[in-house]
Amino acid sequence: MNKDMKILIVDDFSTMRRIIKNLLRDLGFTNTQEADDGTTALPMLESGHFDFLVTDWNMPGMSGIDLLRKVRADERLKHLPVLMVTAEAKREQIIEAAQAGVNGYVVKPFTAQVLKEKIEKIFERVNS
Amino acid sequence: MEHTQSSLGDFESTLKKHAHELVDSLEKGKFGDAVQLIHQLNQTRDRGLYQEVGKLTRELHSAIVSFQIDPQMPQAEEVSQITDATERLSYVVKLTEGAANRTMDLVEQGTPVLNQLSADARDLRTDWQRFMRREVEAPEFRELVQRVDKFLARSEEEAHTVSGYLGDILLAQDYQDLTGQVIKRVTTLVTEVESNLLKLVLMASQVDRFAGIEHDQEQLRAEKDQEKHPTRGEGPQIHADKREDVVSGQDDVDDLLSSLGF
What we know:
Chain A: It comes from Pseudomonas fluorescens. Chain A: It is found in: Cytoplasm. The structure holds 2 protein chains of 2 kinds. Chain A is of the alpha/beta class. Helix content of chain A is 47%, strand content 16%. In chain A, helix 4 (91-100) links the parallel strand 4 (82-86) and strand 5 (104-107). The termini of chain A are close together. Helix content of chain B is 79%, strand content 0%.
Protein backbone atom coordinates (compact mmCIF):
# COMPACT_ATOMS: atom_id res chain seq x y z
CA MET A 1 0.00 0.00 0.00
CA ASN A 2 1.34 3.42 -0.98
CA LYS A 3 1.80 5.42 2.23
CA ASP A 4 2.03 8.68 0.26
CA MET A 5 -1.43 8.32 -1.23
CA LYS A 6 -3.61 11.40 -1.01
CA ILE A 7 -6.63 10.94 1.25
CA LEU A 8 -9.70 13.17 1.65
CA ILE A 9 -11.51 13.01 5.02
CA VAL A 10 -15.12 14.26 4.93
CA ASP A 11 -17.04 14.76 8.20
CA ASP A 12 -19.05 17.71 9.54
CA PHE A 13 -17.49 17.40 13.01
CA SER A 14 -13.95 18.76 13.17
CA THR A 15 -13.14 16.52 16.15
CA MET A 16 -14.06 13.39 14.17
CA ARG A 17 -11.94 14.59 11.22
CA ARG A 18 -9.09 15.09 13.62
CA ILE A 19 -9.48 11.61 15.14
CA ILE A 20 -9.50 9.97 11.70
CA LYS A 21 -6.55 12.11 10.60
CA ASN A 22 -4.57 11.04 13.70
CA LEU A 23 -5.43 7.37 13.23
CA LEU A 24 -4.40 7.54 9.57
CA ARG A 25 -1.14 9.22 10.58
CA ASP A 26 -0.48 6.40 13.06
CA LEU A 27 -0.98 3.98 10.16
CA GLY A 28 1.63 5.94 8.20
CA PHE A 29 -0.67 8.00 5.96
CA THR A 30 0.27 11.64 6.33
CA ASN A 31 -0.98 13.10 3.03
CA THR A 32 -4.53 13.97 4.15
CA GLN A 33 -6.95 16.80 3.49
CA GLU A 34 -10.32 17.61 5.05
CA ALA A 35 -13.79 18.74 3.97
CA ASP A 36 -16.89 19.31 6.11
CA ASP A 37 -19.55 17.98 3.71
CA GLY A 38 -20.15 16.59 0.22
CA THR A 39 -20.64 20.02 -1.32
CA THR A 40 -17.13 21.11 -0.31
CA ALA A 41 -15.62 17.67 -0.94
CA LEU A 42 -16.78 17.19 -4.53
CA PRO A 43 -14.85 20.07 -6.14
CA MET A 44 -11.76 19.04 -4.14
CA LEU A 45 -12.07 15.49 -5.48
CA GLU A 46 -12.63 16.75 -9.03
CA SER A 47 -9.46 18.84 -9.07
CA GLY A 48 -7.28 17.26 -6.42
CA HIS A 49 -6.12 13.81 -7.68
CA PHE A 50 -7.10 11.98 -4.51
CA ASP A 51 -6.34 8.27 -4.09
CA PHE A 52 -8.79 7.49 -1.30
CA LEU A 53 -11.98 8.98 0.18
CA VAL A 54 -13.13 8.52 3.79
CA THR A 55 -16.60 9.98 4.35
CA ASP A 56 -19.31 10.30 6.98
CA TRP A 57 -22.96 9.76 5.93
CA ASN A 58 -25.04 12.30 7.83
CA MET A 59 -23.87 15.83 7.02
CA PRO A 60 -25.59 19.15 6.28
CA GLY A 61 -25.47 20.13 2.64
CA MET A 62 -24.55 17.07 0.60
CA SER A 63 -24.64 13.79 2.55
CA GLY A 64 -22.01 11.09 2.26
CA ILE A 65 -24.27 8.73 0.31
CA ASP A 66 -25.01 11.46 -2.25
CA LEU A 67 -21.29 12.23 -2.49
CA LEU A 68 -20.63 8.52 -3.10
CA ARG A 69 -23.24 8.48 -5.91
CA LYS A 70 -21.72 11.60 -7.50
CA VAL A 71 -18.26 10.03 -7.33
CA ARG A 72 -19.47 6.80 -8.96
CA ALA A 73 -21.27 8.78 -11.67
CA ASP A 74 -18.17 10.81 -12.54
CA GLU A 75 -16.11 9.28 -15.33
CA ARG A 76 -12.77 10.32 -13.80
CA LEU A 77 -13.66 9.51 -10.19
CA LYS A 78 -15.70 6.33 -10.48
CA HIS A 79 -12.81 4.03 -9.54
CA LEU A 80 -11.87 6.03 -6.40
CA PRO A 81 -11.92 3.72 -3.32
CA VAL A 82 -14.46 5.00 -0.79
CA LEU A 83 -14.68 4.08 2.90
CA MET A 84 -17.77 5.16 4.79
CA VAL A 85 -17.27 5.88 8.49
CA THR A 86 -20.65 6.67 10.00
CA ALA A 87 -23.07 6.32 12.90
CA GLU A 88 -25.80 5.22 10.44
CA ALA A 89 -26.44 1.61 11.43
CA LYS A 90 -29.68 0.52 9.75
CA ARG A 91 -29.39 -2.58 7.63
CA GLU A 92 -31.17 -0.93 4.72
CA GLN A 93 -28.67 1.93 4.83
CA ILE A 94 -25.69 -0.41 4.69
CA ILE A 95 -27.30 -2.21 1.76
CA GLU A 96 -27.99 1.15 0.11
CA ALA A 97 -24.34 2.14 0.50
CA ALA A 98 -23.19 -1.22 -0.88
CA GLN A 99 -25.47 -0.82 -3.89
CA ALA A 100 -24.17 2.72 -4.44
CA GLY A 101 -20.69 1.20 -4.70
CA VAL A 102 -19.00 1.79 -1.35
CA ASN A 103 -15.73 -0.17 -0.81
CA GLY A 104 -15.95 -0.42 2.98
CA TYR A 105 -18.32 0.49 5.81
CA VAL A 106 -17.27 1.27 9.38
CA VAL A 107 -19.87 2.08 12.07
CA LYS A 108 -19.10 4.60 14.79
CA PRO A 109 -17.92 4.21 17.47
CA PHE A 110 -14.96 2.36 15.95
CA THR A 111 -11.44 1.34 16.95
CA ALA A 112 -8.07 2.07 15.32
CA GLN A 113 -7.80 -1.67 14.59
CA VAL A 114 -11.10 -1.76 12.65
CA LEU A 115 -10.12 1.28 10.58
CA LYS A 116 -6.75 -0.32 9.78
CA GLU A 117 -8.31 -3.66 8.77
CA LYS A 118 -10.86 -2.05 6.47
CA ILE A 119 -8.30 0.16 4.75
CA GLU A 120 -5.98 -2.82 4.22
CA LYS A 121 -8.84 -4.92 2.85
CA ILE A 122 -9.90 -2.20 0.42
CA PHE A 123 -6.38 -1.83 -1.01
CA GLU A 124 -5.80 -5.58 -1.17
CA ARG A 125 -8.84 -5.77 -3.47
CA VAL A 126 -8.06 -2.64 -5.46
CA ASN A 127 -4.50 -3.84 -6.13
CA SER A 128 -5.38 -7.46 -6.90
CA MET B 1 -61.71 15.57 30.64
CA GLU B 2 -64.82 14.30 32.46
CA HIS B 3 -66.64 17.43 31.48
CA THR B 4 -65.68 16.93 27.86
CA GLN B 5 -66.95 13.37 27.93
CA SER B 6 -70.30 14.53 29.36
CA SER B 7 -70.74 17.35 26.83
CA LEU B 8 -70.02 14.90 24.02
CA GLY B 9 -72.38 12.41 25.73
CA ASP B 10 -75.12 15.10 25.83
CA PHE B 11 -74.69 15.73 22.17
CA GLU B 12 -74.82 12.05 21.29
CA SER B 13 -77.91 11.33 23.40
CA THR B 14 -79.72 14.42 22.00
CA LEU B 15 -78.73 13.25 18.53
CA LYS B 16 -80.17 9.77 19.13
CA LYS B 17 -83.36 11.05 20.73
CA HIS B 18 -84.02 13.66 18.03
CA ALA B 19 -83.20 11.28 15.19
CA HIS B 20 -86.15 9.07 16.10
CA GLU B 21 -88.45 12.08 16.52
CA LEU B 22 -87.19 13.48 13.20
CA VAL B 23 -88.01 10.28 11.29
CA ASP B 24 -91.33 10.15 13.12
CA SER B 25 -92.35 13.72 12.22
CA LEU B 26 -91.19 13.27 8.61
CA GLU B 27 -93.28 10.11 8.24
CA LYS B 28 -96.27 11.95 9.68
CA GLY B 29 -95.66 14.83 7.29
CA LYS B 30 -95.01 17.37 10.06
CA PHE B 31 -92.27 19.29 8.23
CA GLY B 32 -92.45 22.29 10.59
CA ASP B 33 -91.60 20.03 13.56
CA ALA B 34 -88.81 18.35 11.57
CA VAL B 35 -87.14 21.70 10.77
CA GLN B 36 -87.45 22.67 14.43
CA LEU B 37 -85.68 19.43 15.43
CA ILE B 38 -82.88 19.95 12.91
CA HIS B 39 -82.45 23.45 14.28
CA GLN B 40 -82.22 22.10 17.87
CA LEU B 41 -79.69 19.48 16.80
CA ASN B 42 -77.56 22.15 15.15
CA GLN B 43 -77.70 24.27 18.29
CA THR B 44 -76.58 21.40 20.55
CA ARG B 45 -73.72 20.59 18.17
CA ASP B 46 -72.66 24.23 17.89
CA ARG B 47 -72.80 24.70 21.67
CA GLY B 48 -70.54 21.64 22.17
CA LEU B 49 -68.20 22.78 19.43
CA TYR B 50 -67.89 26.29 20.92
CA GLN B 51 -67.20 24.79 24.33
CA GLU B 52 -64.45 22.54 22.99
CA VAL B 53 -62.85 25.28 20.90
CA GLY B 54 -62.98 27.48 23.99
CA LYS B 55 -61.24 24.84 26.08
CA LEU B 56 -58.66 24.28 23.35
CA THR B 57 -57.95 28.01 23.21
CA ARG B 58 -57.53 28.17 26.99
CA GLU B 59 -55.16 25.17 26.97
CA LEU B 60 -53.19 26.69 24.12
CA HIS B 61 -52.93 29.94 26.03
CA SER B 62 -51.74 28.24 29.22
CA ALA B 63 -49.26 26.19 27.20
CA ILE B 64 -47.88 29.38 25.68
CA VAL B 65 -47.63 30.90 29.14
CA SER B 66 -45.87 27.85 30.54
CA PHE B 67 -43.36 27.84 27.66
CA GLN B 68 -42.85 31.56 28.37
CA ILE B 69 -43.33 32.45 24.71
CA ASP B 70 -44.70 35.96 24.49
CA PRO B 71 -45.66 36.89 20.94
CA GLN B 72 -46.66 40.39 22.09
CA MET B 73 -43.20 41.25 23.28
CA PRO B 74 -40.53 40.14 20.82
CA GLN B 75 -37.95 42.33 22.57
CA ALA B 76 -38.73 40.85 26.00
CA GLU B 77 -35.73 40.39 28.26
CA GLU B 78 -36.80 36.94 29.34
CA VAL B 79 -36.16 34.27 26.73
CA SER B 80 -38.55 31.34 26.29
CA GLN B 81 -37.64 27.99 27.84
CA ILE B 82 -37.29 26.50 24.38
CA THR B 83 -34.80 29.19 23.33
CA ASP B 84 -33.05 28.68 26.62
CA ALA B 85 -32.90 24.89 26.06
CA THR B 86 -31.51 25.44 22.56
CA GLU B 87 -28.80 27.69 23.98
CA ARG B 88 -28.04 25.13 26.68
CA LEU B 89 -27.61 22.38 24.09
CA SER B 90 -25.34 24.60 21.99
CA TYR B 91 -23.30 25.06 25.15
CA VAL B 92 -23.05 21.25 25.48
CA VAL B 93 -21.82 21.00 21.88
CA LYS B 94 -19.26 23.76 22.54
CA LEU B 95 -18.06 22.19 25.78
CA THR B 96 -17.70 18.65 24.41
CA GLU B 97 -15.93 19.94 21.30
CA GLY B 98 -13.55 21.95 23.48
CA ALA B 99 -12.80 18.94 25.67
CA ALA B 100 -12.22 16.66 22.67
CA ASN B 101 -9.84 19.18 21.10
CA ARG B 102 -8.00 19.82 24.37
CA THR B 103 -7.55 16.04 24.86
CA MET B 104 -6.29 15.59 21.30
CA ASP B 105 -3.92 18.58 21.66
CA LEU B 106 -2.37 16.98 24.73
CA VAL B 107 -2.11 13.55 23.08
CA GLU B 108 -0.47 15.18 20.05
CA GLN B 109 2.00 16.99 22.34
CA GLY B 110 2.80 13.88 24.37
CA THR B 111 3.16 11.35 21.55
CA PRO B 112 6.32 12.78 19.91
CA VAL B 113 7.99 13.17 23.33
CA LEU B 114 7.43 9.48 24.07
CA ASN B 115 8.42 8.44 20.54
CA GLN B 116 11.72 10.34 20.81
CA LEU B 117 12.41 8.87 24.23
CA SER B 118 11.72 5.37 22.91
CA ALA B 119 13.98 5.88 19.87
CA ASP B 120 16.83 7.23 22.04
CA ALA B 121 16.48 4.31 24.47
CA ARG B 122 16.69 1.87 21.55
CA ASP B 123 19.90 3.48 20.20
CA LEU B 124 21.42 3.57 23.65
CA ARG B 125 20.58 -0.06 24.30
CA THR B 126 22.32 -1.14 21.07
CA ASP B 127 25.52 0.59 22.16
CA TRP B 128 25.13 -0.65 25.72
CA GLN B 129 24.90 -4.24 24.48
CA ARG B 130 28.13 -3.67 22.50
CA PHE B 131 29.72 -2.51 25.74
CA MET B 132 28.45 -5.64 27.56
CA ARG B 133 30.07 -7.73 24.83
CA ARG B 134 33.28 -5.76 25.52
CA GLU B 135 33.27 -4.26 22.03
CA VAL B 136 33.60 -0.66 23.21
CA GLU B 137 36.99 1.04 23.55
CA ALA B 138 37.76 3.44 26.36
CA PRO B 139 37.25 6.78 24.51
CA GLU B 140 33.89 5.62 23.14
CA PHE B 141 32.94 4.33 26.56
CA ARG B 142 33.47 7.78 28.10
CA GLU B 143 31.15 9.22 25.48
CA LEU B 144 28.62 6.45 26.11
CA VAL B 145 28.58 7.18 29.83
CA GLN B 146 27.87 10.84 29.06
CA ARG B 147 24.97 9.82 26.80
CA VAL B 148 23.51 7.50 29.45
CA ASP B 149 23.77 10.25 32.03
CA LYS B 150 22.00 12.78 29.77
CA PHE B 151 19.38 10.23 28.81
CA LEU B 152 18.53 9.43 32.43
CA ALA B 153 18.16 13.12 33.27
CA ARG B 154 15.98 13.72 30.20
CA SER B 155 13.84 10.62 30.90
CA GLU B 156 13.08 11.92 34.35
CA GLU B 157 12.19 15.39 33.07
CA GLU B 158 10.08 14.21 30.12
CA ALA B 159 8.25 11.53 32.08
CA HIS B 160 7.27 14.41 34.34
CA THR B 161 6.08 16.47 31.35
CA VAL B 162 4.00 13.62 29.90
CA SER B 163 2.57 12.87 33.32
CA GLY B 164 1.45 16.52 33.40
CA TYR B 165 -0.26 16.07 30.02
CA LEU B 166 -2.06 12.98 31.34
CA GLY B 167 -3.24 14.96 34.37
CA ASP B 168 -4.58 17.68 32.06
CA ILE B 169 -6.33 15.05 29.93
CA LEU B 170 -8.02 13.82 33.08
CA LEU B 171 -9.14 17.36 33.94
CA ALA B 172 -10.46 17.91 30.41
CA GLN B 173 -13.13 15.28 31.20
CA ASP B 174 -14.85 17.66 33.63
CA TYR B 175 -17.28 18.53 30.81
CA GLN B 176 -19.17 15.31 31.62
CA ASP B 177 -20.46 16.69 34.91
CA LEU B 178 -21.49 20.06 33.43
CA THR B 179 -23.07 18.71 30.26
CA GLY B 180 -24.80 15.97 32.25
CA GLN B 181 -26.55 18.59 34.38
CA VAL B 182 -27.56 20.68 31.37
CA ILE B 183 -28.89 17.69 29.44
CA LYS B 184 -30.93 16.51 32.43
CA ARG B 185 -32.64 19.90 32.62
CA VAL B 186 -33.41 19.91 28.92
CA THR B 187 -34.76 16.35 29.16
CA THR B 188 -37.16 17.48 31.90
CA LEU B 189 -38.36 20.35 29.70
CA VAL B 190 -38.87 18.07 26.69
CA THR B 191 -40.97 15.70 28.82
CA GLU B 192 -43.10 18.62 30.04
CA VAL B 193 -43.56 19.98 26.53
CA GLU B 194 -44.55 16.52 25.31
CA SER B 195 -47.23 16.05 27.97
CA ASN B 196 -48.61 19.56 27.32
CA LEU B 197 -48.71 18.92 23.58
CA LEU B 198 -50.46 15.60 24.20
CA LYS B 199 -53.15 17.43 26.19
CA LEU B 200 -53.63 19.84 23.28
CA VAL B 201 -53.91 16.97 20.82
CA LEU B 202 -56.59 15.32 22.99
CA MET B 203 -58.51 18.63 23.17
CA ALA B 204 -58.23 19.10 19.42
CA SER B 205 -59.53 15.57 18.84
CA GLN B 206 -62.72 16.49 20.77
CA VAL B 207 -63.20 19.46 18.44
CA ASP B 208 -62.71 17.09 15.50
CA ARG B 209 -65.46 14.78 16.81
CA PHE B 210 -67.98 17.62 17.25
CA ALA B 211 -67.16 19.12 13.88
CA GLY B 212 -67.10 15.67 12.25
CA ILE B 213 -63.64 16.28 10.80
CA GLU B 214 -61.82 13.16 9.58
CA HIS B 215 -58.11 13.21 8.81
CA ASP B 216 -56.61 11.34 5.94
CA GLN B 217 -54.62 8.76 7.95
CA GLU B 218 -52.88 7.39 4.88
CA GLN B 219 -51.62 10.80 3.88
CA LEU B 220 -50.39 11.45 7.42
CA ARG B 221 -48.58 8.12 7.41
CA ALA B 222 -47.06 8.84 4.00
CA GLU B 223 -45.76 12.18 5.28
CA LYS B 224 -44.25 10.45 8.28
CA ASP B 225 -42.61 7.77 6.14
CA GLN B 226 -41.07 10.42 3.95
CA GLU B 227 -39.39 11.92 7.01
CA LYS B 228 -37.81 8.54 7.66
CA HIS B 229 -36.19 8.17 4.25
CA PRO B 230 -32.87 6.35 4.80
CA THR B 231 -30.85 8.71 2.58
CA ARG B 232 -31.37 11.51 5.10
CA GLY B 233 -29.71 9.54 7.86
CA GLU B 234 -30.86 8.92 11.41
CA GLY B 235 -27.70 9.45 13.41
CA PRO B 236 -26.51 7.15 16.18
CA GLN B 237 -28.91 4.36 17.17
CA ILE B 238 -29.71 4.37 20.88
CA HIS B 239 -31.38 0.95 21.15
CA ALA B 240 -29.38 -0.95 18.53
CA ASP B 241 -29.52 -4.19 20.55
CA LYS B 242 -33.33 -4.12 20.64
CA ARG B 243 -33.94 -3.40 16.97
CA GLU B 244 -33.99 -5.99 14.24
CA ASP B 245 -33.39 -3.51 11.41
CA VAL B 246 -30.24 -2.07 12.96
CA VAL B 247 -26.77 -3.64 13.15
CA SER B 248 -25.33 -3.99 16.65
CA GLY B 249 -21.70 -3.45 15.75
CA GLN B 250 -18.92 -3.76 13.19
CA ASP B 251 -19.15 -7.60 13.16
CA ASP B 252 -22.80 -7.31 12.09
CA VAL B 253 -21.86 -4.87 9.32
CA ASP B 254 -19.14 -7.23 8.09
CA ASP B 255 -21.55 -10.19 8.10
CA LEU B 256 -24.16 -8.22 6.20
CA LEU B 257 -21.65 -7.00 3.61
CA SER B 258 -20.17 -10.47 3.12
CA SER B 259 -23.69 -11.85 2.60
CA LEU B 260 -23.98 -9.26 -0.19
CA GLY B 261 -20.80 -10.61 -1.75
CA PHE B 262 -18.31 -8.10 -0.35
